[in-house]
Amino acid sequence: MRVLVTGGAGFIGANFVRRTVETRPDAHVVVLDALTYAGDARSLDPVRDRVRLEVGDVADPDVVDRLVAEADLVVHFAAESHNDNSLTDPSPFVRTNVVGTFTLLEAVRRHGVRLHHVSTDEVYGDLELDDPGRFTEATAYNPSSPYSSTKASSDLLVRAWVRSFGVRATISNCSNNYGPYQHVEKFIPRQITNLLDGGRPKLYGRGANVRDWIHVDDHNDAVWAIVERGTPGETYLVGADGERSNLEVVQDLLEIFGRDRDDYEVVADRAGHDLRYAIDATRLRTELGWAPRYTSFREGLARTVEWYREHEDWWRPAKARTEARYAASGQ
Ligand code: NAD
Ligand code: TDX
């Protein structure tokens, strides 16, 4: 099978590519990635002899058409992915997330190629802390940020292309991922690398906001389950019952590092900060037989800490400029 992976040099995409190559000897993988600040070709080093990397823009119709024409399956990860950046400059979010997905949809329509579109639970907006409900496939879209509104837009384009043109596409909306090769701008790697540098974790607001954490390998196993056993035209929510407040995560990390549980810093809150995300993944579990393998968040977190400890060469180059960007907005 010839698989085109967009955004395959980013966090989730590169983990997907490595896992695919390691577990599926019949897969021929081509990565289309623009290598923005968030993409890193080194994340593909362990499998570089089995993967072709095409550096290009998912919103460029010529390169997309050429690569889609030679694929049996497209898995679409490419996106601008960081909420804080979308508040500083939303423009690349509209271009990559909306125009990029449109460009890909037109190409899979022309060539009749199966598409899996990777999206986020943030399209559903946020929940109150004490709301007993969780997001399901039936929850109405209600995105809050420039990032999540562009992801919601891309999902709606996919749904429209399925209905109007019969494109064979599935969508997954996943909760917050953690694991190796995640950019140091994101919450968990930022705090781990601060701690490795002897600094303090930085919490937005009081740390009450809740995220529903899933290990990146469990997310990527779900993507394969949907590609292989899902129904084209359908949406599947992906989550592993991993709700934790940001304060709990920071305190877990402080414990792992043997530091005082209160040794963190409170910094400026994110504008429009979503309070809580929570996924009900019943459909994925019952219809497709998926289950997470990382059932202990604390254990997965400790392994992630070890990965960052052992791969300073990978994260160090981005650390100072990322922190300089945060400092400029009081974070
Ligand atoms: P990331 O920012 O780590 O990686 C994005 C990749 O896309 C990078 O390699 C970047 O170079 C590439 N890219 C950006 N613009 C591009 C363009 N115009 N053309 C081609 N490539 C481009 O993001 P991630 O965390 O790996 O997220 C991957 C996907 O999963 C995104 O669609 C995101 O919305 C979705 N998602 C992420 C999470 C999460 O917790 N990180 C959760 C649910 C869904
Ligand atoms: O330094 C920080 N301190 C802090 O308290 C940072 C960077 C974040 N936070 C908070 C904000 C969020 O409540 O931690 C939480 C997680 O923040 P992010 O890692 O920026 O993730 P989030 O905004 O929840 O979005 C993530 O999950 C859904 C991904 O970045 C998205 O791509 C995905 O769609």
UniProtKB/TrEMBL annotation:
Its cofactor is NAD(+). Its EC number is 4.2.1.46. The keyword Isomerase does not apply. InterPro entries: dTDP_Gluc_deHydtase (IPR005888), NAD(P)-bd_dom (IPR016040), NAD(P)-bd_dom_sf (IPR036291). Transmembrane segments: none annotated. The keyword Lyase applies. Residues 4-303 form the NAD(P)-binding domain. It catalyses: dTDP-alpha-D-glucose = dTDP-4-dehydro-6-deoxy-alpha-D-glucose + H2O. Keywords: Lyase, NAD. GO terms for molecular function: dTDP-glucose 4,6-dehydratase activity. It holds the Pfam family GDP_Man_Dehyd. Belongs to the NAD(P)-dependent epimerase/dehydratase family. dTDP-glucose dehydratase subfamily. This is dTDP-glucose 4,6-dehydratase. It comes from Cellulosimicrobium composti.
